[in-house]
């Protein structure tokens, strides 16, 4: 990261010299200084995640920092990182408000997962001091039956740079929820550790069960190599996991550099465009400058028009894509119909099961049908921008399609699932199915009972679920695309401002003495040389 800091310092000086805005440079530097390798610890509910982190940090049973006997309703993400001064803990609400509490107060608190976004735990801790660039996140468990936990996990996926996945030694069953997450993670080059917790509870079949787990994992990750660590909070043993985290720390600067590289290059490009335009325009007459400004305006207008056309064409394809996704969800629901019927006949509420089916179907369908369209859209926009010569420079556009994809998927799934589980109508329909069974069981045969339940599912439940799926996906996709398009528009505006400032600065200096002009040109050429060196250093 040092070369990035040096680059930003040099860029700041150049921008200052020409009265260019330093806001982006300053923000990048601030973000880089506070950045950490976000490393969530995930697993099913009660898999020993919190106990494992307590052990890592050296907290005893009587002085543990994280509660291990919490209920789903009180489980919220806990972000844990090093503080060189003192222990500081903040409770962060969904609305962004922060409440500072002491360690002892935190140990006694019962948090509400519906209103608290996360806790920020900054500790003056000897082990955390060894991994200062790593932020551990104690995540709520999978399959807790509490949808807010699924949404929390979804929200961390796009910004996580390493992962620890916990499997208790007495329950090493690979559930599809965890497997699908692993499959997603393995698409990205990030460190992943499988932590076997409660190692002291292993039975005589442990090695065989572990081998089965490893084989099952391959179904989701292929031949990707994972780090395996055996831990026991009971015996205070987490040395293997500590070594994994130390390795993450050793690679943290490169991991974070990869995260910020594109943003730094974009900032460099803006300054370079200004300098190139200034240099090329410095020998023009005032009337030639007017012509150049007019030409620049037309080229930028053309660029905006091309972008608008691409945006309109893409927007027009979204509705069709949403219908395809809804159809995929319909097929997934119908495939699970026998399960729904069996649950209804056993007096079980099927809300949670419907939610799981919908989450998996939406995830798969968006990846298959929508993400390829997004990637093509971003490429088309990038091509029309990158190929458009503006003045004597090219406006460079780059967008991290990978991050965009992760954001769209996680938000779509979270939004859709939240709507479905929170919908009273669905709950009422499910109750209606169960009530129907009780009403007819003494009057009709079992097959007729099943038929009636199937009819209720197909005529009322599925249509309502599909309707809400459409609304949820529409909402999530619209929000994400607005963020994408706003970023593109901001980039074009930034470039326009830089180029127009270049022409205006030349106009102000047009009456300068030839010697001064030559000196100005020499200074610019020297700064452009620095810009080239910056790019080479970041390559």
Walk me through the structure:
With 539 residues, the protein is an alpha/beta fold. It has three domains: 1-34 and 260-283 and 509-539, no CATH class; 37-250, 3-Layer(aba) Sandwich (Rossmann fold); 309-506, no CATH class. It is built from 17 helices and eleven strands. It has helices at 2-17, 23-34, 49-56, 103-108, 126-130, 147-156, 176-185, 206-221, 239-250, 252-281, 286-335, 337-345, 351-386, 401-421, 424-440, 446-508, 514-538; strands spanning 37-42, 78-82, 88-93, 98-101, 116-123, 134-138, 163-168, 192-197, 227-230, 389-390, 393-394. Strands 4-3-5-2-6-1-7-8-9 form a nine-stranded mixed beta sheet, with helices on both faces. The protein has a two-stranded antiparallel sheet with strand order 10-11. Helix 13 packs antiparallel against helix 14 (401-421). The longest helix has 63 residues, at 446-508. It is globular. The mean pLDDT is 82.
Spell out the blueprint of helices and strands.
Layout: H1 2-17, H2 23-34, E1 37-42, H3 49-56, E2 78-82, E3 88-93, E4 98-101, H4 103-108, E5 116-123, H5 126-130, E6 134-138, H6 147-156, E7 163-168, H7 176-185, E8 192-197, H8 206-221, E9 227-230, H9 239-250, H10 252-281, H11 286-335, H12 337-345, H13 351-386, E10 389-390, E11 393-394, H14 401-421, H15 424-440, H16 446-508, H17 514-538
Parallel strand pairs: 1-6, 1-7, 2-5, 7-8, 8-9
Antiparallel strand pairs: 2-6, 3-4, 3-5, 10-11
Helix pairs in contact: 1-2, 1-10, 1-17, 2-10, 6-14, 7-8, 10-16, 10-17, 11-13, 11-16, 12-16, 13-14, 14-16, 15-16
Report the uncertain regions: none
Q: What's the overall geometry?
A: globular
Major sheet characteristics: 9 strands, mixed
Order of helices and strands: HHEHEEEHEHEHEHEHEHHHHHEEHHHH
- Broad structural category: alpha/beta
CATH class bucket of the largest domain = Alpha Beta
The number of distinct β-strands equals: 11
Q: What's the oligomerization state?
A: single chain
**Which homologous superfamily in CATH is the superfamily of the largest domain?**
P-loop containing nucleotide triphosphate hydrolases
């Amino acid at each position: 990261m040092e070369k990035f800091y040096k680059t930003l310092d040099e860029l700041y000086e150049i921008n200052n010299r020409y009265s260019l805005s330093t806001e982006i440079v300053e923000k990048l530097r601030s973000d880089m200084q506070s950045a950490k390798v976000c490393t969530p610890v995930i697993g099913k509910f009660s898999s020993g995640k919190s106990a494992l982190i307590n052990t890592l940090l050296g907290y005893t049973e009587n002085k543990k920092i994280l509660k291990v006997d919490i209920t789903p309703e009180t489980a919220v993400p806990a972000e844990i990182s090093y503080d060189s001064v003192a222990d500081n803990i903040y409770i962060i609400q969904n609305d962004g408000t922060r409440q500072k509490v002491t360690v002892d107060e935190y140990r006694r608190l019962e948090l509400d997962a519906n209103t608290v976004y996360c806790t920020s735990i900054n500790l003056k801790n000897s082990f955390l001091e060894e991994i200062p660039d790593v932020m551990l996140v104690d995540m709520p468990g999978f399959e807790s039956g509490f949808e807010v936990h699924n949404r929390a996990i979804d929200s961390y996926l796009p910004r996580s740079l390493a992962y620890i996945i916990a499997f208790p030694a007495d329950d090493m069953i690979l559930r599809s929820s965890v497997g699908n997450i692993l499959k997603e993670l393995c698409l990205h080059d990030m460190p992943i550790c499988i932590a076997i917790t409660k190692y002291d509870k292993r039975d005589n079949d442990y090695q065989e069960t572990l081998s089965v787990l490893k084989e099952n994992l391959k179904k989701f990750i292929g031949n990707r190599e994972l780090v395996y660590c055996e831990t026991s909070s009971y015996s205070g043993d987490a040395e293997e996991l500590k070594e994994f985290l130390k390795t993450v720390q050793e690679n943290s600067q490169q991991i974070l550099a990869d995260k910020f590289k594109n943003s730094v290059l974009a900032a460099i490009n803006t300054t370079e465009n200004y300098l190139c335009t200034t240099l090329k325009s410095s020998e023009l007459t005032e009337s030639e400058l007017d012509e150049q400004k007019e030409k620049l305006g037309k080229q930028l207008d053309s660029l905006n028009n091309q972008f608008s056309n691409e945006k309109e064409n893409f927007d027009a394809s979204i509705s069709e894509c949403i219908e395809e996704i809804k159809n995929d969800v319909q097929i997934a629901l119908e495939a699970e119909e026998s399960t729904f019927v069996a649950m209804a006949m056993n007096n079980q509420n099927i809300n949670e099961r419907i939610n799981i089916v919908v989450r998996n179907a939406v995830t798969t369908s968006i990846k298959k049908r929508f993400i390829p369209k997004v990637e093509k859209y971003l490429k088309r926009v990038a091509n029309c921008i990158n190929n458009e010569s503006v003045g004597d420079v090219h406006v460079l556009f780059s967008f991290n399609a990978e991050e965009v994809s992760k954001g769209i998927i996680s938000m779509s799934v979270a939004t859709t699932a939240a709507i479905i589980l929170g919908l009273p109508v669905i709950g009422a329909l499910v109750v209606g199915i169960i009530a129907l069974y009780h009403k007819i069981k003494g009057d009709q045969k079992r097959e007729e009972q099943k038929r009636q339940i199937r009819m209720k599912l197909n005529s009322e439940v599925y249509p309502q679920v599909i309707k809400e799926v459409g609304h949820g996906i529409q909402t999530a996709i619209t929000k994400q695309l607005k963020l994408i398009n706003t970023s593109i528009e901001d980039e074009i505006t930034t470039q326009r401002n830089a180029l127009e400032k270049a022409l205006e600065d030349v106009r102000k200096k047009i009456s300068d003495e030839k010697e001064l002009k030559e000196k100005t040109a020499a200074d610019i050429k020297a700064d452009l040389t620095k810009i080239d060196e910056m790019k080479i250093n970041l390559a």
